[in-house]
Write a structure and sequence with these properties.
By secondary structure, this protein is mainly alpha-helical. The protein is built from two helices and no strands. It has a domain of 26 residues. The longest helix has 27 residues. The N and C termini lie far apart (40 Å). The mean pLDDT is 88.
């Protein structure tokens, strides 16, 4: 018998929601950050 819960824990759901939203909006975030910094390398560092 497994000790795994039948339903995802709220923290798991929140994490999955964050990752999905981040992935969806990452290009826009990257472009916005790029407007604030002089190089793409700098923008990449900030986004990390």
């Amino acid at each position: 018998m497994s000790n795994m819960p039948l339903e995802p824990r709220p923290d798991d759901v929140r994490y999955e929601t964050f990752v999905a939203r981040f992935a969806k909006h990452e290009p826009d975030l990257r472009r916005f950050i790029r407007t604030l910094l002089p190089t793409w390398t700098g923008a990449d560092e900030v986004l990390q």
